[in-house]
Amino acid sequence: MRMMLLGPPGSGKGTQAEYLIDRYRIPHVATGDMLRAAVREGTELGNRAKAIMDRGELVPDDLVIGMLMQRLANEDAEEGFILDGFPRNTAQARALDAQLEDRGLGHVVALEVPERELTKRMLGRGRSDDTEETVRNRLTVYHDMTVPLFEYYEKAGILRRIDGFQSIEDVAASIVSALESTG
Ligand code: ADP
Questions:
Q1: How confident is the model over 130-168, as pLDDT tens digits?
Q2: Does residue 45 sit within a domain?
Q3: Does any domain span residue 136?
Q4: How far does the centroid of ligand 1 lie from the alpha carbon of residue 57, in Å?
Q5: For labelling alongside 26, which of 2, 14, 92, 133 has CA 20 to 30 A away?
Q6: Predicted TM-score of the model (pTM)
Q7: Read out DSSP for the chain?
Q8: Residue 145: which CATH number?
Q9: Which residue of 90, 129, 136 sits with most ligand 1 atoms within 8 Å of its CB, as the best mutation to test the pocket?
Q10: Residue 39 lies in a domain
Q11: Domains in the chain: how many in total?
């Protein structure tokens, strides 16, 4: 199963991914987690990404795409993967399609959560990019850059919209039923 979790920051993509990796035995590939690891390790990529992430902007496509493609080439991603946080704009989506060729993404699961709830969740989380100003910026970037992917994947016929404003268990059940009712 090659799937992607689409949704605004704070919509619960990481939480749901934890559940889905257990159920489907495929790796969780989260570009935000990978970038934070690079920052912690002080790699060249991490050093270039840190200030950008703290402002809530997107790390340049060439850096993120290179990092992601390397990760997907790992043996553990052969049977599938759960993408979280990638693609985040149409250039990234096209690069992914080009890389995956005929074995393209099978499902894009979009988590829909009201904005006031997102802000509340993120401010309660305490990550270094979860300050009020950065959160506002991340939501703006999401609307400008990432929301166009709804149309991109709707056209591809693989978009499944899920109500993300339910309990964690109910969101998980909704995702599984969407995945399994469409093959
Ligand atoms: P959230 O979904 O809560 O915003 P993430 O962990 O997915 O958190 O991302 C945190 C930050 O990492 C983003 O604000 C951005 O700066 C950077 N980032 C993550 N994924 C990408 C990507 N695909 N393209 C560009 N920047 C990214």
A1: 999 999 999 999 999 999 999 999 999 999 999 999 999
A2: no
A3: yes
A4: 8
A5: 92
A6: 0.94
A7: -EEEEE--TTSSHHHHHHHHHHHH---EEEHHHHHHHHHHHT-HHHHHHHHHHHHTPPPPHHHHHHHHHHHHTSGGGTT-EEEES---SHHHHHHHHHHHGGG---EEEEEE--HHHHHHHHHTT--TT-SHHHHHHHHHHIIIIITHHHHHHHHTT-EEEEE-SS-HHHHHHHHHHHHHH--
A8: 3.40.50.300
A9: 129
A10: no
A11: 1
